[in-house]
Amino acid sequence: MWHLPGPETVTTREILELIARDLGHPVGVRSLPKLAVRALGLFNPMMRELAEMSYEFDQPFVLDTTKYQSTFTTATTPLTTAVAATVAWYQNRNGTRTTPQKEST
Predict the structure, then answer these.
(1) Which contacts (CB < 8 Å, 24+ apart) does range 23-29 have?
(2) Number of other residues whose CB lies within 10 A of the CB of residue 83
(3) Using one digit for the tens of pLDDT, what is the confidence trace for 54-67?
(4) Cβ neighbours for 4, distance < 8 A, ≥ 6 positions apart
(5) 49 exposed, middle or buried (CB, 10 Å; 0-12, 13-18, 19+)?
(6) What is the reported pTM?
(7) Mind listing the pLDDT tens digit for each residue in 62-94?
(8) Where are the domains of the chain?
(9) In 1-105, which residue ranges form alpha helices assigned H by DSSP?
(10) What pLDDT, on a 0 to 100 scale, did the predictor assign at position 105?
(11) Measured CA angle at 61 (ends 56, 62), to 5 deg
């Protein structure tokens, strides 16, 4: 089986920290107990799917892309580049561009 290559493996929190950095302000992170997600799934199809796929978040979910990369020798976009481009696109799509705030040191 082949898995398409992607960026380096990081946690969801690390991705949110990259987004927060590019936005220039913190992004809140909250967790919801599985029972609550299942209850919300009774009314919301998206939450129902999230509950069904929650096993993917119980342990690290890392795919081995060695077979694909050795066959096709492709390069992937670094995660920091992909997140920055996505945030820039999102901010510019409806003129909602905001100026990132400088980090205080």
Answers:
(1) 23/87, 23/98, 23/100, 24/98, 24/99, 24/100, 24/101, 24/102, 25/101
(2) 19
(3) 888 787 777 788 88
(4) 65, 68
(5) exposed
(6) 0.64
(7) 778 888 888 887 778 889 999 999 999 998 987
(8) 12-92
(9) 12-23, 34-41, 45-52, 66-72, 79-92
(10) 47
(11) 160
